[in-house]
Amino acid sequence: MSFNGAAGMIPMTEIPIIDLLSLTWFMVVWVIYTWHADVRVRRVHSLRAVMHAYREQWMQQMMSRDNRVADVNILRNLLQGVAFFASATLLVLAGLLTILGSTDRAIEVVRALPFAAKTTLLQWELKLLVLCMIFIYAFFKFTWALRQFNYCSTLIGAAPKGPDDAFARRAADVATHASKDFNQGLRAYYFSLAALSWFVSPWLFMAATTVVVVVLYQREYHSTALQVLSTAGTGEHK
Known about the structure:
The chain is mostly helical and 238 residues long. It has helices at 17-40, 47-63, 69-101, 103-111, 121-158, 165-196, 202-221, 224-230, and strands spanning 2-5, 8-11. It has one domain (17-37, 49-230). The chain has 8 helices and 2 strands; from the N terminus they run E-E-H-H-H-H-H-H-H-H.
């Protein structure tokens, strides 16, 4: 088994077992949390469910208005946020590729840190490539969210005047799917912070990954924001 690095093929047998175990833990935890938060959970008390109900209410209110400038401005703000992160992700990727092209100098800087684990060239390339893959994933998520918010703006323009629950549900679903992909891109940023700790220690990498999941879970299901948003009793996402 091998891994394609900047300097050629990276034999996985030359990577310490603890590094492979920490990377496996990182991937498994991320996949399981994503499945739990975005695939499995439907009728739960979560920020995603509560916000979906608010989006349905928004679309219903939007169809009762003659002037929809306020709705367009809301979408514009959402689009600006997604576009910012998409652009920032490209800059991060450019920086990572630059570091990958000058590994000798960069690895010497890391080795000079007193608290950092000894890192070989193969380990360094693997860690950088994992970070690159994380931000490539984030970029695809942000750009897809951007497109879906654009679709939502088209639905607002095509919305009929007067109550139409079916249309409101469809528009809210598109906005919720866009928000889901945006959240997944943001989640990649959180996990990239955990991946940075891998340069210090694989044990710290596993610990940081666990902390990130705990923080994400706490914010999604037990945060103060969720308690405040839930007081209106808007229902839950089906």
